[in-house]
Amino acid sequence: MQSIIYIFVGLFGLSIGSFLNVIIYRLPRKMPFFLNRSICPNCQNNLKWYHNIPLLGFLFLGGKCGFCKTRISWRYPAVELFNALFYLYFYWQFEWGYQFLVFSFLSSALLAIFFIDIDFQIIPDAITLPGIVAGLAISWLPGGIGILNSLIGLLVGGGSLFLMAIIGDWMFRKESMGGGDIKMTAMLGTFLGWQQMLFVFICSSVIGVIVSLAIMAFSKKLRETRIVPFGPFLAVAAAVAIIYGERIIDFYVNNFLLAQ
Length: 260
Description:
Elements lengths: L1 H25 L29 H5 L14 H20 L3 H23 L4 H14 L8 H26 L6 H40 L1 H6 L5 H27 L3
Helix pairs in contact: 1-3, 1-4, 3-4, 4-5, 4-9, 5-6, 5-7, 6-7, 7-9
């Protein structure tokens, strides 16, 4: 019975991952993503239903469009697979209940933000603003972080980045941080609370510096523009916080703060 549940959770994660691909492609392009059939971006043909079977459709087609034979980006099966793995991990950790539902929802939102920000350097309000409302609403539920913790997380998340943006704009005489990043951290704060948001800021900054320097070493364009979207680093740091955040915070408190 447990094996059947894991299969169901995995298939559900793959299906939601397939829908995330639609959102990632259509939302920043302001295309409708409900009720419209999927099309090949190259030849514009409507895809057959079996072309859209999560993961299997990509393998069945050999990674190419069934009509024009243009290569399909690896991103499509990757998003589906990562989303399924997140769902399976959260079920393994929490089984059914509040934490499984909340973290599954949040991980899917982070996957969409990760790839949209990489491609377009935007974080859509259509994801973050409803996310803020959802985070505050579910904080009331049994097992939630509590409305006070959620509100403080919103203020710490959004407020800290807003302050950093003001200071950065003043120092560099140009926009240093987009409004989407601020709304994203506000959303994360409502789900994770202020303690984990501090970890997210530290973790995303470290990852951002390391990855940016590595990319700049090989990319002349990036060295010239110095434009690196911060959303993907926040998404990765938030995923780390969801999975390991409490253990890292407890380790730090027990071994450093309480040991003093």
